[in-house]
From TrEMBL:
Transmembrane segments: 62-79, 85-103, 115-141, 147-163
UniProt entry keywords in alphabetical sequence: Membrane, Transmembrane, Transmembrane helix
The protein's name: Integral membrane protein
């Protein structure tokens, strides 16, 4: 008579395969066998989500402006919902890049190419700061602010991709 008692088969859900790992012989200690249940085929939705996640993960460095733009959009929405007057506190964020440009150009003059990049960065940051201040005050979807957000995002993404590949 065998030493095992109980059922010799394990119930497996429909559409799955069971892989049985044989019991390990240990000195005097009994352990139950391990059963790993593996689905046979992933669904088409799972494959599509996996491919999309893999693509986003591989190109995550290039998508940094997208994450920042969506984050600023959500923060502006939250600030507008909680305190509309917070837009007044964000006005220095719109003016700050222009002040930075004036200070840097005065203290460290640069060649024409560097000046172009500095001006582009200052204008882009000023547009983003002004949008954030107005969106926090009036709502991110008020009037032309949604188009302004989209154009600023496209400009930031384009500048980011050009700057990453030009160095």
């Amino acid at each position: 008579m065998p030493a095992r008692t109980g059922p010799s088969t394990v119930k497996v859900p429909a559409g799955a395969s069971a892989i049985r790992i044989p019991r390990q012989r240990r000195s005097g200690r009994r352990s139950d066998p391990f059963v790993v249940v593996v689905p046979e085929r992933p669904s088409l939705t799972r494959l599509a989500l996996g491919a999309t996640a893999d693509l986003v993960w591989r190109h995550r460095g290039a998508l940094a402006p997208l994450g920042i733009a969506v984050g600023v959009f959500l923060v502006a929405t939250l600030l507008h919902a909680l305190a509309w007057w917070s837009g007044l506190a964000l006005v220095p964020a719109a003016v700050g890049p222009l002040v930075w440009l004036a200070l840097v150009q005065r203290r460290r003059p640069a060649a024409a190419r560097a000046v172009c990049w500095r001006v582009a960065f200052a204008l882009l940051a000023t547009a983003a700061g002004a949008w954030a201040a107005l969106a926090a005050g009036f709502g991110p979807l008020a009037g032309p602010l949604e188009v302004w957000w989209l154009l600023t995002f496209v400009a930031a993404q384009t500048t980011w991709l050009i700057a990453r590949h030009s160095n």
